[in-house]
Amino acid sequence: MTSNNPGTTARETRAVAKGTTFKSCACKDPVTGKRLGKSCPGLRITHSDGGQRWSTAHGTWGYQLELPAHADGKRQNPLRHRGFATLEAAEAELEHARGLLALDPDLAVRRQITALMLSVLKDTKGLPDVEEVRRKVRTRQDLNRHVTVEEWLAEFLKRKRAIEPTTRRSYESHVRLYLTPYLGSIRLDQLRVSDIAGMFDAIEEFNDTIAAERASGDPARVLAVRYRRPVGPTSMHRIRATLRHALNMAIRQDRLLDFNPASVVELPAIDRPKPLVWTEEKVQRWREDHAAHLDLLQRAREGRRVDPIAAYISTPRPSSVMVWTAEQTQAFLAYARQDRLFVLFRLIATRGLRRGEGVGLRKPDVNYSTGRIGIHWQITQLGWEPIQGAPKTDASDREIAVDAETMILLKEHDKRQKRERLAAGEDWIESGFVFTDEIGRPLHPQHVTDRFYGICYQAGLPPIRLHDLRHGAATAMLAAGVDIKIVQETLGHTSSAFTRDTYTSIYPEAAAAAAEATAAFLTGSPTPAPRPVPPGRRIPHPGQGTTDEAAADKGGTVIHLPTS
């Protein structure tokens, strides 16, 4: 098949075996009303010397590819895909499609590949990955059926026949209570490290809910969680072991995967993890461990690409619960400032919102006149499915104060959302949430977590979980001397005792200040804390003839030396 367009060169429309590229538009004949397509005169520009070239401002490129005949021998309509901005883009997808059909000479397999191509193109406007299809063709899988995690786990349990009854009950319990509800709907070949990490984050959040309800003192609320046991670190390791075993079977026996994401998910130690601050020494050691971990993954993958975010998340840390220093949090917020979800991350970092609370913040719950927001709705996640609803406890349903700068940023965010609404036009969906995607739909909680990890990685910061950003907010409030009762109410805890027991991390600076204050109290030699020096001001040194009062007037730090 060749193009009839004048001025076409061999490069501009490249006829290949069973495929070609073309340029067309949606213009219609003013008389007949029929679409002009490839014959529109506006597609070409005529030079003064009579030569022609393609217009760069009119029409789009496309390609056409002959497909294998149906099983009954009837000719199948060719694959046509148009709408490409450049010839190169159309040619690239044409080569992609031809590469897929060339994966296997068996005509029956090529028909399966064709059906897969047409289905994926319809759903995603793109073609399936060549390497993924190649693996399925090599292992003789049904190309047009995607196995979910739930389906594979059911198959896993069927195949585990020669095991002890207690082991079977353990496997079945893990699958029924955790793996299927949280991960079951995800395609097995698309299961990611972050999906599994998100499952354990959700389990930990529910542990917090159970503890808060039991500490409430309300008989009805205590009774509601009477038979709900928190999942401890030991149980989490066993749940991961079950999933890891099931995925290893998928790799070895059916070749459904080539990488086991459960094997690199970082979990808390068996003992209750101690929250630690990312000091300079810990960061340097982690960077060395990360380089070694990345090298190990690359060697294990035998040259195949390693997901840098997965390697970043899965590198072991000093503790599973890590807290950034104030400077690290400031660096994160500075880097995230250009992200469209910046204000959401700022609220979590400064006010300690849970992920679901931030995603579920509604416009009527933002009170600009009082500088407060209401936490009355949340979007949580069950498996991959987002679940909307009110907070689970009375303490979580609350109103909190927000600083003036964040309120200004919320106004700016609202203005940008209005501009996005105008740009989206009829495609806009008014969901009523403060934080949405580009066409107004509620955010998926996992999308926020993925975005958070991406920013942390790009900013060059040591990794923490998104939930640890809330932990850092609580630690910062306590280090700043905020009353424990206010911290408790801001975080939505039932009791201040629970807040105190949970958030015990101390910034090194705060610990040093406490040590100095204690020593001064016991020795009777009070040493006032130096006042901060404004940027650009120099600290006067003793002997320069500057009095304390003059130094203070000039912005210097006044240092009182003990007299002999």
UniProtKB/TrEMBL annotation:
Gene3D superfamilies in alphabetical order: 1.10.150.130, Intergrase catalytic core (1.10.443.10)
Keywords, sorted A to Z: DNA integration, DNA recombination, DNA-binding
Protein's organism: Nonomuraea jabiensis
Domain Core-binding (CB): 147-251
Domain of life: Bacteria
GO molecular function list: DNA binding
Spans annotated as Disordered: 523-564
Pfam families referenced in this protein's UniProt entry, alphabetically: Phage_int_SAM_3, Phage_integrase
Comp. bias regions, Pro residues: 527-537
A single GO BP: DNA integration
Residues in Tyr recombinase domain copies: 319-516
Matches recorded under SUPFAM superfamilies: DNA breaking-rejoining enzymes (SSF56349)
Name of the protein: Integrase
